[in-house]
Amino acid sequence: NLKLLHIFCECAKVLTLAILTTTRGKMPTKTASVTRQFFAALVAAATLVNGAVGQDCTAPWPCTNAEGTATVANCDTSGATDYFPSKVSPGHNDGWNITYHGYYKTVQVFTPSQNYSYLLVQRGCPPPADSALSPSFQGVTHVYVPVRNVSIDSSTYETFIAILGERQTIVVRNGAYSADPCMNQQIVSGQTATASTSCSARHVEVAFGGSQWGAAICASATVPEIREPGTSAQTLLGQVEVIEYFAAFYNQEARVVAYVDDQAARLDCLTNLINDHVQNRSGGRVKALAIDYPSVASQWGPAALNVVSCPHYMCDALTRAGATVLNNVSGVGGYHALPWDWAGATQAEVVFTGILYSTDNATCSAWWNNTDAIPASVPARVNHEVFDNGAITDPSGGTDWFGSRVAKPVIQVETLANILYPELNLRGGLSNVWWQNIYTESCTVPIGGIPTAAGLARQCVSPGSSVFAPGEGSSCAGLTATTASTVNNSAGSDSNDTNWVVWLLVGLVAVAVVVAVALGVMYGRSRREVARLTDDREPVMNPAAVAFEENF
């Protein structure tokens, strides 16, 4: 909204300046005076709005982290001061919750095995006494926020943190499992270590990660392990909303609410755009099947296909992309040892699959072509419409599908729809990001081979940028967060209370533009009237007045 208001102000300034310039010395004195005052007001308004927008911000959403960036002096623990004026509240992911208490936050994460509780205290403030906390938070290790040095176990976390503009806080990670060029630059330069032996030297404060199979890297008696709240959520919005969880640890709520709202608005717009196209398409909806991952025969079992079972984020993504999702057919989803007759999925026109691990391109192609993985009569095999998600990998050969994809639901749907319905050309000539055709492009490994950390590091253009800033949002890109009327990520705080003010200002500026045009028309008419009555021109303005106008 502020950016739109800023554009209005700038356009009105240019128009009014053009009127002042072209009519210098000719406009009636009173009209000229009013016009100059109007221009001065526009300059002031544009300057004010420009500051509110934050032109020093490189990301396409509000990114000034003014809340808690420094240690608080003389902390007010009475509850009278709210150190977290911007708040988040999950609306699409039931894997966590958060409440705010003036100078601290309480966070809970829910997993099938157990629940986890965290106490986030504004840096510079003392932890609250146990007597002030509910039983589930008494005795819980507190974390001072915003966090400064962290370790991570997943490239998914890395993407969320990078979008927050906090990539530099990742000082240790569990190996070079990143396809992000700027993270690889940090690894190559030594800014980020890839071994647990560096945890103490890097002063790690919190360790994001951990599971039932083991503790998070750097987790210890003094470094709390922070579990994530389920990036395996069954919807795209449920997954992207996890970024709000990470934002709470960085006091970046203001920034991330705008980001999630923007993704939700564009996702709804994109879904409607695709559905409008599909409804008018002569061939109807394309039938698609999603395979979680294929596996070769080994000592642990036969060759198999692990087919996605709905509900699942891929079912949500394919539905939004306009497909008839065959995974919804009874008996299709689940583990299928090969050969499998593809009962319920024999009409699949396009197949999307995870990569075949531990193989090269030639071995991967041979496996798909020479086994019973896909019956010869399935249209996807006949027409060579099988895609795996190995087009972007990290230096270890692992796919980036489990990294940056989670935070980018709009791009997920765009790429799927682009493959299903090429005539839409949603990507505007850009690549399909994670997906590659295993018959015509590459299989398991990306075209050109697995990258090196040094090679990726050289691709880092701006260390402060997010992973997909260039070319992002090629469809429905003009939406703003206010269009996401069905998404509530502000916990009922300030967004709904301020939107009417912003739109009122937008309306006033729009009226101002009309007034500027009217002034020009008034000048033309008044000049003709003066010429008719006096057969003379108005006197030329004095040099001082001309010099004043020259400044504009």
Instruction: Return Rg in Å.
Output: 29 Å
Query: What is the total tally of β strands?
Result: 15
Strand content: 5-15%
Order of helices and strands: HHEEEEEHEHEEHHHEEHEEEHHEHEHHH
Q: Report the biggest beta sheet as strand number plus sense, adding barrel if it closes.
A: 7 strands, mixed
Low-confidence runs of at least 5 consecutive residues: 46-69, 467-471, 478-503, 530-552
The rough form would be described as globular
Structural class: alpha/beta
Number of H/I helices:
14
Distance between the termini: 27 Å
Features:
alpha/beta
Structure write-up:
The structure is a single chain. With 552 residues, the chain is α/β, with parallel strands linked by helices. The protein is built from 14 helices and 15 strands. Strands 9, 10, 11, 12, 13, 14 and 15 form a seven-stranded mixed beta sheet that branches. A four-stranded mixed beta sheet has the order 1-2-3-4. The chain is globular and about 75 Å long. The two termini are 27 Å apart.
